[in-house]
Amino acid sequence: MIGKLMIGKTFKGCIEYCLSDKRIAGKKQNTSGRVGVLHYNYCFGDKKSLIRDFNNVAALNPKQSKPVFHLSLSLGKGEHLKDIDWVTVSEQAAEHFGFEKNQYLLISHNDTELHQHIHIVANRIGFEGKTTVSDSNSFKKVADFCRKMELKFTLQTVLNPKRFLSKSDRMLTRNDERKNVLADRIRRCLSVSLSLDDFKSRLKKENVIVITGRGITFIDEKKMQVKGSDLKFPLSKIIAVINKNIQVKQEKEKQNQKFEEYWKPSDEPGRSRGFRM
């Protein structure tokens, strides 16, 4: 079993990523039904409800700037656990890391071409406003937990996580998941932007800095710097989408203007405009 732990600032990007169907490794695949919530602990609802509820509890401790606990666990090729077993894993993880009395989700990603894996998203803040999950010695804690689960469920022992990866997968950076989250933020902001400055302003609210020159570069809250072309959002594409947004807005305004003129009261007595039957 391979474990990867991330401690973050915002639940929005994390929960949206974990609960959304996405492309796998840049390939066009049908990922419908890829995501399933296997277990809720002191929480329930859709993405918006979960984000709101997690944020409300995190707000009980405003001094804690990183309330997000995100643990992903992957099995080796050919290994498989039943849903009920994954629920047990999540309960063991909650006890091991200290969030058994906090909000947390267990999410399964059923990627057919990847190793079976799950995500646990938990609130480091308890209902009493205290931080119950430490971020110290996280690497050792994750390693210890994975070894414990390998013994419990008779899984192969992994001393070197790269054993599970193909040569091409080993070349992938550790930032792939964060790149997916960043790409989602860019896509969401771009869809409603009407200028490059508007686009930058919207991303700034998402804790993303935009640098433009001959191209475009994005920097997230953890200082990860990525070229737009690496995220399939080169500057030329962004400008093209913004121009399209402007065109659509102008067309809607013209239609609204025509509609208002059509329904404007007539100056001729006894006549009014309307639909003819």
Which SSEs are present, and which pair or pack?
Blueprint lengths: L1 E7 L2 H8 L16 E7 L5 H12 L9 E7 L8 H15 L6 E6 L7 E7 L14 H15 L14 H4 L5 H15 L5 H10 L3 E4 L3 E4 L5 E3 L7 H28 L15
Antiparallel strand pairs: 1-3, 2-4, 3-5, 4-5, 6-7, 7-8
Helix pairs in contact: 1-2, 1-6
Describe the structure.
It is a single chain. The chain has eight helices and eight strands, in the order βαβαβαββααααβββα. About 4% of the residues have low confidence. It has two domains: 164 residues, BirA Bifunctional Protein, domain 2; 86 residues, no CATH class. With 277 residues, the protein is an alpha+beta fold. Helices cover 39% and strands 16% of the residues. It is elongated and about 85 Å long. Helix 1 runs antiparallel to helix 2 and helix 1 packs across helix 6. The strands form two sheets. It has a five-stranded antiparallel β-sheet with strand order 1-3-5-4-2, sandwiched between helices. A three-stranded antiparallel β-sheet has the order 6-7-8, with helices on one face.
